[in-house]
Amino acid sequence: MNTAKPATLGELRQTEWAAPSRIARTVKDELRANLICLLENGSPLFPGIVGYEETVVPQLVNAILSRHNFILLGLRGQAKSRIVRQLMSLLDEEVPILAGSEVNDNPFAPISKYGRELIAEQGDRTPVSWLPRDARFVEKLATPDVTIADIIGDVDPIKAARGGHLLSDELTMHYGLLPRANRGIFAINELPDLAGKIQVGLFNIMQEGDVQLKGYPVRLNLDVALVFTANPEDYTARGKIITPLKDRIGSEIATHYPLSVELGATITRQEAWVARDTRPIRVPDFIGELVERIAFEARTDKRVDKKSGVSQRLPISTLENVVSSAERRVILTKEKTVVPRVSDVYAALPAITGKLELEYEGELQGADTVAKDLVKRAAGETFEARVGGANVDDIVHWFDEGGALKISPDERSETLLKGFSVVPGLLDLVDRVGLAGKKDPAHMVAACELVLEGLVAARRISRSEDLGYTRARPEPKNPGYGKPGAGGSGAGPNLFT
User: Fold this and answer.
1) Which residues pair with residue 95 across a beta bridge?
2) Looking at the domain that runs over 9-254, which CATH code has it been given?
């Protein structure tokens, strides 16, 4: 059986591509039809996108079914670019185009002068090539220096000289990104950064289909699905979306950060580079939860700029740094398995500080101080969620009576476990933390550190660089900023020294 694809226009006329319904089908019709097939088959629509199943995804489906151009509006780190790129999967695997066409001319309905003249000269012998779906997706990051020539195109004097054409001839055009995206998806990230005159060129193409280049009117009936992304902060910080363009965007879809710690932790585990090629790595669930709660704490802290947002990249980068800190320790101590501890979270501060845009109060305190306080509060919330209500009086009493623990972050787990065992009742709480049956020293030490850090956050005990974990100190007069109870005795540097 001959399965060769048609190579000429005449051969293509003998296939389903010559059907009137196929010729008339636009890119938006194509996206809609393929989406309907996925919905009917119960197939996943946007693999890897977690937490949007009940919010963003239904709005995306509605926009595509409505054949809308749409914009994803949300703060940084909300998977906007990933969603846009996954739209490519809704395109056909490949489509026929006129060979040599810069604008992916439909062999049955060319939009360029080149395509029309080629068919007029060669008729059914006109060569046809096939365009794969990944070549039908064009993405551009908007910056203030983008020109109308970049997006729409420009007159090329060299083409005119070589071909003996007048400058007003369409054959002298050098096509920009948008015409080259014909019969595909054209995505612009950070739309407000695009200069106003470029935005005018976009809505003119969207609505009327013509544009002037160097004073010469050139009509391009483009078949393209336009998708945009924007950060709401950009409307005032760097630019704005002009009203005529915004009016022509069919749907505005708001993205958001994970609505729960569990969803956020799922995303972080999915995206973080945790599986290393050296030793086995076991990240306790409560460490993953603690890392995720750092982002949740930051998003509600008044020292952190809420307009800028706290990207999901913060917990992802932090978890990677946490694992690296534990990996470094295990290499030094020659243990067999990498199990992160709370001390490793404090060691990951460089992955946190660079992702926080601070308000004036936060700037006064410094990024390191704010980040340490966020870790401490996240540890307290994790402790409360897992061990809340447990009797910790024996542990607190031991410290109140003068007990102290000063430990090193680079100590072997077996040695630390012996030290933790002298604290009455401490080891009894490790099951409450959630070890999932893992009673090895590394996991037990990580659980013990969480209990102690939770007590520090609750101000039942204290922690200092010189003394380690000790009895609670008096409440400071100025506990700091943020949530009630933020700052205070536990807001200092990491004390695992």
Assistant:
1) 131
2) 3.40.50.300
d(CA 49, CA 120): 48
The predicted pLDDT at position 468 comes to 86
Each residue of 369-388: pLDDT tens digit?
999 999 999 999 999 999 98
* More confident call, 270 vs 3: 270
> What whole-number distance in Å separates Cα of residue 274 and Cα of residue 379?
21
If you average pLDDT over residues 391-403, what whole number do you get? Answer: 93
Angle ∠(75,81,84) on CA atoms, nearest 5: 125
Question: Domain segments of the chain: what residues?
Answer: 9-254, 261-490
Give pTM, 2 decimals: 0.84
Contact 132, 88 (CB under 8 A): no
Q: Are strands 461-464 and 468-471 parallel, antiparallel or unpaired?
A: antiparallel
Bridge partner residues of 94 (DSSP): 132
Residues 6+ apart with CB under 8 A from 351: 314, 317, 318, 320, 321
Question: How would residue 231 be classed by pLDDT, with cut points 50, 70 and 90?
Answer: confident
Please, are residues 86 and 274 in contact by the beta-carbon 8 Å criterion? no
Is residue 157's pLDDT more than 80?
no
Residue 349, helix vs strand vs coil:
coil
Task: Find out whether 148 and 34 touch, Cβ atoms under 8 Å.
Answer: no
**Span 282-288, average pLDDT:** 95
Nearest Cα neighbor of 341 from 294, 395, 282 is 282
Burial classification of residue 274, based on how many CB atoms lie within 10 Å of its CB (0-12 exposed, 13-18 middle, 19 or more buried): buried
Residue 374 tokens read as 């966020």
Smallest CA-to-CA distance from 27 within 136, 138, 115 is with 136
